[in-house]
Specification:
This protein is mainly α. Helix content is 63%, strand content 0%. It contains three helices and no strands.
Length: 126
Amino acid sequence: MADMFADEDAARFFQMVQMLQRSTLLQMGYLPDQAGQHHYNMAEAREGIEVLRMFQRKTDGNLSAQETQMLRAVISELQMQFTQAPQRRRVQQEEEAQSDVVRETFSKPQDGPVEDLSTPHGNEEE
């Protein structure tokens, strides 16, 4: 990564940016934590984006064009993901609920949903 940046400070700055980016994505449920769990804390995600925007304001004029563009791109991407996170969360919850139904059906088939596909003898076509 140091090859991409002019000096070690620039590389460390972007390591910090990436740490905040990962933390923000974790809070929006896009990345699992170390235990494999997904979190959904939009207030923390919003704060992560705001901290990055503060870095952008505080470093204005002190970054190279490449560094400025990279920081802008990270913030923009996180903002877009932030707006999509609630819908993504709903889809994830629906998928988890469906998985629970399937898991329950296979673990206790006697209690699972039943669909009768048979037809009465009088309505059968030959």
